[in-house]
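User: I'm writing a tutorial on reading structure tokens. Could you give me a worked example: one chain, its sequence, then its tokens, then a sentence or two explaining what the tokens reveal?
Assistant: Sure. Here is the example chain.
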Amino acid sequence: MNKTIILFAVLITACTNSPKVDQAVLSEVETYLEGYNKKYQELLIPSTEGAWKLNTYIQDGDTLTSKLAEEAEKAMVEFTGSAENITVANKYLERESELSPVQVRQLRAILYGAASSPAIAKEIVDQKIKAENAQTTALYGFKFNIDGQKVSTNDIDKILESSDDLTKRLSAWRASKEVGKELKGGLSILRDLRNQTVQALNFEDYFHYQVSDYGYSSDELVAVCRDMNKEIWPLYRELHTWARHELASKYEEEVPKYLPAHWLPNRWGQEWSSMVNVEGVDLDGELEKKGAEWVMTEGEKFWMSMGFDALPKSFYEKSSLYPLPADASYSKNNHASAWHMDNADDVRSLMSVEPNTRWWGTVLHELGHIYYYKTYSTSEVPIILRGGANRAYHEAMGTLIGMASMQQPFLEGVGLMPENTEVDETQALLKEALDYIVLIPWGAGVMTEFEHDLYSKNLPVDEFNKRWWELKKQYQGIVPPADRGEEYCDAASKTHINNDAAQYYDYAMSNILLFQFHDHIAKKILKQDPHKTNYYGSTETGDFMRALMKDGANCDWRDHLRTHLGSDMSAKAMVDYFSPLMVWLKEQNKGREHTLPATL
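And here are its predicted structure tokens:
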């Protein structure tokens, strides 16, 4: 997850200047923007430091940390949302044709940032900040337990990934959802406060505000997500049918019409890759021998082999990379994230790295964010435009390297697999599909549609769980083990519903983009089969990635994509990549009932 306090521009302006340029106006605007960027960075540092501590040092009864975080964030939002900045930015944008493209982008970024905390809605903004910090504390301070015994989320994940005992799995799955009960009221409050905050600057609602970062309306974004699901639906439908039969055989049960949630190897059913063990590959065993520290350092070496610099010493000194000791007097957020503390040199990561396959991919993913931060942190990109070309670009950079790190030639090169290992290529492709394809209906379907209904349609609080499970069934073909009434709020057990609201479609879009990027690297740069690539040591690949990264948000993402790939965003590269698997799945599913509809 890209956890960073960066204000993204709504990049919808043309990148051309009027022939008539008033140099005095340009100079005046530039002076204003230089002052804004300087002040923004000064306030960003204590704000992110406060948020960092709030996520890495959670103690029962500690109100001081939350208070200090609130104060730092208040100072930031009072500046970004000030009436003066809103007035000045609007005034200069009235002369947009006389300004440079980078000036226009910064002014639009200022207005976008102001909408999350406008001074004209100060009382609401103050309430929102307090409510968000309270929700964070409740989420990450929650004590999970199974049958009265305290467990971590890692413990729950291990049960769901590996246990064949359905009773044990059911207990773990139910335990993972208990936190939602405590968060439901807070989510309802946050929905109202978030909507009211952005409506003060004429956004329709919080969902509309978030999608405007892509230059989309709410309806356009939902349509884009539905199109993504339609493109991959035939493959997902085959995967769903295969999974129903595979899991029924594993648990020695009747084949269900829909997938029971606790049968799947993930708390939310968002990826199923651990259902498949690829013959000839024992990454968990090899990684266990090497240890968690090796996972981190080898991840860094991968990036360095492509021509990127070593991480700064401060990264290792200030990050929180490993699980806390069992007897620790405090807890921390166990959700992996990358942090750009000052939009300059201070980069950190919050993880709980263990030497296993899941964390191997996660480490490479988070380092993707870190190196993206470092690449666009140059004098050519203003402080407030140091973000991804869009949010999905940031996720794509991380996930692209995570995927590349799992391909056989790469694994052989770093010593995680003996050379010339016989690997079942179909099973390897299946494992990838159970990650990348399965995420699309979850991210572009369930999460997007739920949050659209939550914010844009003001979904009644007494229908939260009902709507959640309707969408789970429609898009994922997943049902709960038993009826889940409105005393639960299973949606709120997902971090992003609380903390990174109304933007989960970023992950689905990033999966589409990463296959486009990978297809280009494999075919145009490495001249390798996209299923058998090795980026390690390819400085040409590093050069291409730097070209994608270096502009940050100082570009129009759609123009940027056409410039570097020669195409618009499309799932074609993803569908082509998995076409051999589609043939195999159809053969496996001959004579089986498909319970999902042929079309969405």
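What the tokens reveal: The first strand starts at residue 145 and ends at 146. The two ends are 28 Å apart (CA to CA).
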